[in-house]
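not sure who needs this but someone in the group chat was asking about Hexosyltransferase from Rostratula benghalensis so here u go. i didnt clean anything up, its just raw.
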Amino acid sequence: PAGPAAAMRLASLLAALRPVLPLVLGLSLGCSLSLLRASWSQGGGEEQCPGAAGPPGARAGGARPEAADGRPGRGHEDFRPRIVPYYRDPNKPYKKVLRTRYIQTELGFHERLFVAVLTSKATLNTLAVAVNKTVAHHFPRLLYFTGLRSAKVPHGMVLVAHGDERPIWLMYETMHYIHQHFGADYDWFYIMQDDTYAQAEQVKALVTHLSINQDVYLGRAEEFIGGDEQARYCHGGFGYLISRSLLLKLHPHLDSCRNEILSVRPDEWLGRCIIDFLGISCVSQLQGQHYHTYELAKNAEPEKEEEEEFQAALAVHPVSDMTLMYRLHKHFSRIQLDRTYQEIQDLQMQIRNLTSLTPAGEGGLTWPVGINAPFLPKSRFEVISWDYFTEQHLFSCPDGSPKCELSGASKADVSEIIESALEQLNSRYQPLLRFSKRQLLNGYRRFDPTRGMEYTLDLLLEAVTQKGHSHVLAKRVSLVRPLSKVEIIPMPYVTEATRVQLVLPLTVQDLDFVANFLDMFAMNTLDTHDNALLTLLFIYHPYDAQRVSQVDVFAGVKAMVGELEKRYAEVKIPWISVKTEVPSQVKLMDIVSKKHPVDTLFFLASVWTEINMEFLNRCRMNTISNWQVFFPVHFQEFNPALVYRGEQAASSSTDFLRDGHFDRHSFAEACFYNSDYMTARTKLAADILDRDELLESMEVFDVFLHYSGLHLFRAVEPGLVQKYALRSCNPRLSEELYHRCVLSNLEGLASRSHLAMALFEQEQANST
């Protein structure tokens, strides 16, 4: 019996150890391999790999050589991160450190490409204009250099005149100017003449494939006349590329080149200067990249040029007139467009081939191929609605009306999409069938932010066969206008140090809210020493103005202002008194504008506005002189009596935007510069002549919208919160302004759910 008992105990032990047996075996195997690997590594201590060359400290795999102390070798210090220690001199007073606006500036990054165009007084208004219209908008920065400038510079061109038409002097001054103003900001410098057509996108693609760690002098290499057979200079007519490192090394020798080198051609002079002092010759091929050029024959026809050399040319020279420049641009744009379409087709074919290998299979293939799938809403509140339209009318209008005439950009959009649908149908069914439009039966469109504008068209078509038989049929087609590449729009530089001049119009109906406004202004601007001033605009009714010596309706406000000026000795809050029955926003702004300098940044506020530093900074950043004005959409809180109905309001700071809405009917707040307002106001005065009564139907927004070419930036502003208050709508204003005021009051009462609950409770109370 002892034998069976021992066997049972052994079996029970093995059963208990069976779950941990793989773990024990894994640990044992891992320890054994670790000991074995340690013995191997100790055995090859001082041996060098067979065939290894160079010093013992050299790294394998083509790594960059380093100095003996382990730091990067000379020439690589610009590409290795380094820590700059902070040191403060205790003997000097403390001064606030100003950080750069962009991290790119602080890290020392450079822009990629700068383009210089050499022109002359004779060709400035012809060839230079043609260059500006064809390729200038493709380059990030382009300047024109000339000896003598004409009386009027063409619009949209930045011109630098050196005062001398001598070619060598022009080249010398241009190189000196580029180094002085842009040498520290750009990696590559492309220099061309105004009789050169350059494919801008090809030039930008070229510099992205070149290393900036070399001295580059790239262009069409030409031999010197009677010079060294090995040396080459870059022909100026076909443009040439210079790296930043070469420009920095060349600059100290420019004066010597000007005095010692004699030449007739400026490009030959520059090439000789680079060769003599730097020993670098022009090349047409570098790092696997070719600089393809094409010399255009006299009376050439770009549309008939079929040579492969012409099709691949990066620069074409000489271009004799503006018309030829535009024809070249059209031809190369068509070539680039065909290449792009072919690349799209190739990518779509690859996507189709790879889709079958994905888990979703061919069912996961989206239409159009390569475009994001339509947005799938997770609830009914996320459903994107379709807008119905015909060829004459749109049934979803911006002003909220059910039907409006199709015009402007919407009409052009519909016409273009119908033409595109017919073109696609004919390209698919020809030559068997040829379609022509009879009528648009139904049209639907919607904007999907994940893919673009979607269209569904019901078309009444006439189909004609090859034998001439015709048939009328209705066909539904779907189209997508996809979102293209996102571009960053260049904007002028603005700072947060600009002084903001607040303008607050006040009427008798606003007296109950002035105290809160002044308290918030003092707490958020005066206590924080923000660079902001306040001007009050007292609007007297004619009846109150006659009794101002006996009873001043604004006496209480003036007393509050006096208290603020006593509390803050350095602050002065001026006020302006105006007598009118109809407080037109434009007329009031006319009075304020005349009393301030032209460079004043105005913030036109309302008495319900709670001023804070966050919004004032956005007002500064979003308002750009001679470029953009800012009309924020404030957040309006709902009526607490309807929203909470006796309950305690939510105190969480994260929920402060929950019980309210952004009031899109209000245009009372605005940020703009006085100079921009004066310019637009001058155009308005010339349009309305002496009909000042028209100003009563306008706001400052209308002035900028119709009489200025500035950008009108209107966006929701969460930093501009207003407490609920029932506005008094002046019936003396225009019908549109009065209607907007009433809508603002009605929509500001509460949300639909809150109003529904209030009605439900009221009906329950009435029923009982």
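also The two ends are 90 Å apart (CA to CA). if thats useful
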